[in-house]
Design brief:
- This protein is an all-alpha fold.
- The protein has one domain: Hypothetical protein af1432, CATH 1.10.3210.
- About 65% of the residues lie in helices and about 0% in strands.
- It has a two-stranded antiparallel ribbon with strand order 1-2.
- Strand 1 and strand 2 (about 130) form a beta hairpin.
- Helix 2 (about 25-45) packs antiparallel against helix 3 and helix 2 packs across helix 7 (about 115-125).
């Protein structure tokens, strides 16, 4: 991901401050921290020579739901409003990741591993603040949001994309992706 001149990555402490400034609910903060843990379980178990920016992964995981609390009232798409907010703050690379954490576009199965793929996938493995399987997460989404046939179809379609992203990420890892994630569940 190309970084612009004004692009920078906030520290973990700055991310904590931003989450507080934007009144992220405690449960959303806990979810974001767990997404960071899953993201790092992936990032820290990549094969030698696989280049991803660990600091970018941490910041994007922590800030991916920065406008979710606000969106509960406004009904805005928090992926897009979060990206817009982060871009205005000069965090362009994080903004691009946040904008793809719900509706992922342009997956290149044969391309290099991207930070946005890690965050997208990690978010799908965390339900509230609990690490779950993709099947458990999809079941929950169907129960909560699958009232209409079209919504159900989209959730199922998205499951196929999540599994494709999982397969791509797994090909870059030196250990089994589920084993890496299970290790953080045990801690």
């Amino acid at each position: 991901m190309a970084k612009s001149i004004s692009d920078r990555i906030p520290s973990r402490e700055e991310c904590n401050e931003l989450m507080a400034q934007h009144s992220m609910r405690r449960n959303i903060v806990e979810h974001s921290i767990q997404v960071m843990h899953v993201s790092l379980a992936i990032t820290d178990n990549l094969k030698n020579g696989v280049a991803v920016n660990r600091d970018l992964v941490i910041a994007a995981a922590l800030l991916h739901d920065i406008t979710k609390t606000r969106s509960l009232k406004t009904k805005e798409r928090h992926d897009l409003s979060g990206g817009e907010l982060l871009r205005e703050m000069g965090f362009t690379s994080i903004a691009e990741i946040v904008e793809h954490h719900i509706v992922f576009q342009n997956l290149n199965p044969q391309g290099g591993l991207e930070e946005r793929e890690i965050i997208y996938y990690a978010d799908k493995r965390v339900m509230h603040n609990k690490i779950v399987t993709i099947d458990e997460r999809v079941h929950d989404l169907l129960q909560r949001y699958g009232k209409a046939a079209e919504i159900k179809r989209l959730i199922i379609q998205n499951k196929h994309l999540v599994l494709a992203v999982e397969s791509k990420i797994a090909s870059f890892m030196k250990v089994d992706i589920n084993r890496a994630i299970e290790e953080i569940k045990a801690n």
